[in-house]
Amino acid sequence: MADALRFRTDNAVDHPAVTVDAYLEQSNASAVRIEPGDDARDLLPHLGHIRLVEINFPAFGDGRGYSAARVLREAGYTGEIRAVGDVLVDQIAYLRRCGFDAFEPDQPLDPSDVKMALARWPDVYQSAADGRVPIWSQRHG
Amino acid sequence: MYQYDRFDQAMVDARVEEFRDQCQRRIEGKLTEDQFKPLRLMNGLYLQLHAYMLRVAIPYGTLSGPQMRALGDIADRFDRKYGHFTTRQNIQYNWIKLEEAPDILAALAKVEMHAIQTSGNCIRNISSDHFAGAAADEVTDPRPYAELLRQWSSFHPEFSYLPRKFKFAVIASETDRAAMRLHDIGINIVRGHNGDLGAAVYVGGGMGRTPMIAPLIRDFVPLDQLVTYAEACLRVYNRYGRRDNKYKARIKILVHELGAEEYTRQVEAEFAHLLAQNIEPPIAELERIKAHFAQPAFMPGDVETSQPDVGDGKFAVWVDRNTHPHKQSGYASAVISLKPVGGIPGDATSDQMRLMAALGEQYSFNELRVTHTQNIVLPHVRKADLFALWQQLEAAGLGTANLDQVGDIIACPGLDYCSLANARSIPVAQRISERFAANGKGDTLGELKLKISGCINACGHHHAGHIGILGVDRKGVENYQLLLGGSEAQDTSLGKITGPGFSEDGIIDAVETAADVYLRERQDGERFLDTYRRIGMDPFKEALYG
Ligand code: SF4
Fold first, then answer.
1. CA A118 centroid distance within chain
2. d(CA B461, ligand 1 centre) in Å
3. What CA–CA distance (Å, rounded) separates B450 from B511?
4. Chain A partners of B160 at a C-beta cutoff of 8 Å?
5. How many Å apart are CA B79 and CA B357, to the nearest integer?
6. Taking the alpha carbons of B66, B71, B75, B77 in that order, is the dihedral positive or negative?
7. For the domain bounded by B142-291, which CATH number is listed?
8. What end-to-end distance do the CA atoms of chain A give, in Å?
């Protein structure tokens, strides 16, 4: 867990995440792991108690986790959202836009590649979970 | 038409640099083919049977003269002096070298073009009515809405790893010239009760192995909520679309399995939630885009409104078949057929592309369109100029007068190029058009839309052909099924298989047999499709197998 690439300054949660089902049954953990088939909205009543949500990508092509992260951010969750599993540098920029602020992939990322990937796009076309001002708003002041 | 500002240009330029870097890493062996594949696919670069194929986006099928000229020049510099216009209103180059792909993207970026999201499980190029902005029957020009959605869907962070590819079509007329209801999302811009424009939204149509006609899920979305509504439709799909089976992953399966009503309920709930998130572009942005699609400076209607009567029968036939009514009197939209007798449907040589570019500049306010039926449109031609235009087209082998006729065949690349194919499509199309030209029946058949796919993926839209042909593999031998009664127009219907398949020779004869049944049975004014709908499959079966 120490090797997670984090874009936050608070201390990382130091205990393992529990499954969504386990969390909903006992609900005193502060770290939960969402699998692609889980409904992130099940966690919404409990967001005040959660400090870390791990979202697992068993395969990078399964994009359900992008929606899960945005759903959490749109509900006002400000804790950590960490992408785990098959996460490649080519997805980092999109993941950041959807509200992920930590990465702990199966294959460690090269920090300089990450930096380059995040710097690549000067602007964005849509509103998402990262608060960036989309091009269409910039055009109209 | 739309022109990039510095923001649009910067996005495309950044993409070129990113891809140059990725190609370099692949060539140096720092990326394996497995790692490289999803990256090249997001830039439209496929590995086909014999070489790399590059698919270039032509948003809603609209392009300028300089853009068409650039496409021709790319065909010269990087391919074998031709390109292939596709059923997605795009162009494909079939003989590309990997090391040159970034240079092609750079050449495209210079004329405000790209290959972004022309493949992969993301939102693909958005298609539209090829007569948009010109058609006499349109409510409004649908392209500003398509452009708004193009920008919204470009590099969309949440929807770049969908269960499957995702296709939009946007139209704005009762008459559907874009197969709107055979798209993942079909949008028809309509006028509401209060006179305002809004979007009627259809979700879950498609061809492929399980063809479906999209149901209407919302009859009116206000235009200042369009992006938010699209986002809701996509989010429900991204979260709940099937990912266990590639063949059940399109949104049509989700809508079908949930039922249109339940899917709609989920979309409405997500929509209500997203409205509070303020993700909609300002309406000023739509106005800005609309200004790019302002009507050209047409000559007043009372000046030279009629085409010259030059006493040339061939020209009159071309005008009759290949022009379409324009909203401005004195003008017409002219269709350049890329279906010469015996030719490869949709192919154009680099010289032909440059000629079409010049003709678009000279006669059509610098605008051209690609149709999903693989032809090229000059949308705004003065009727007084039609004869001069036609003469130049004739001289270049582009004057074929067969729009919507049996020779105007849609055919997918098939086994000549495509690694998924079961059978060849192109030679079958060539032989059918030759057959009907030689026996003279082609001219007597009227509107007859014939569509050929080389496998069940249906890129040639065979389900939607008045006559459809599907290539299948029968014990290692190419075999062709015949379908009758499909339509992609406002009376959308799916074709039915006649019965056992045919050999390559057999399918050519079978198409002629079906045409003969129509010629025998037709009543006044009926098209092939009308006769089929009236008399049903039996008389055709009898003639084919009896
Ligand atoms: S229909 Fe099949 S053969 Fe034809 S292009 Fe599509 S995938 Fe290839």
1. 15
2. 10
3. 9
4. 63, 66, 94
5. 19
6. positive
7. 3.30.413.10
8. 42
- Which CATH superfamily is B410-545 part of? Sulfite Reductase Hemoprotein, domain 1 (3.30.413.10)
Q: Which is higher by pLDDT, A72 or B312?
A: A72
Dump pLDDT digits (tens) for A25-63.
977 899 999 999 999 999 999 999 999 999 999 999 999
Report pLDDT digits (tens) over B192-241: 999 999 999 999 999 988 999 999 999 999 999 999 999 999 999 999 99
Which residues 289-308 of B are in CB contact (within 8 Å) with A?
none
Full-model pTM? 0.94
Per-residue tokens: B108: 């495209």
Mean pLDDT throughout B19-41?
Answer: 87
Q: Are B226 and B148 in contact (CB under 8 A)?
A: yes
* A11 to chain B, closest Cα gap in Å: 27
**Read out DSSP for B295-327?**
PP-PPPTTSS-S------HHHHHHHHHHEEEBS
* pLDDT, tens only, B102-160: 999 999 999 999 999 999 999 999 999 999 999 999 999 999 999 999 999 999 999 99
**Nearest atom within ligand 1 for CA of residue B454:** 3
Q: In this complex, how many residue pairs, one in chain A and one in chain B, have their CB atoms less than 8 Å apart?
A: 97
- Rounded to the nearest integer, the mean pLDDT of chain B is 94
Question: CA A109 to CA A114: how far, in whole Å?
Answer: 7
User: What secondary structure letter does DSSP report for B458?
Assistant: -
Q: Architecture of B314-395 per CATH?
A: 2-Layer Sandwich (3.30)
DSSP secondary structure of B133-183: TTBTT-SS-SHHHHHHHHHHHTT-SSSSS-SS-B-EEEE-SSS-SS-GGGS
- ipTM of the predicted structure? 0.97
pLDDT in tens, B513-543: 999 999 999 999 999 999 999 999 999 999 9
B159 neighbors B167 (Cβ within 8 angstroms) = no
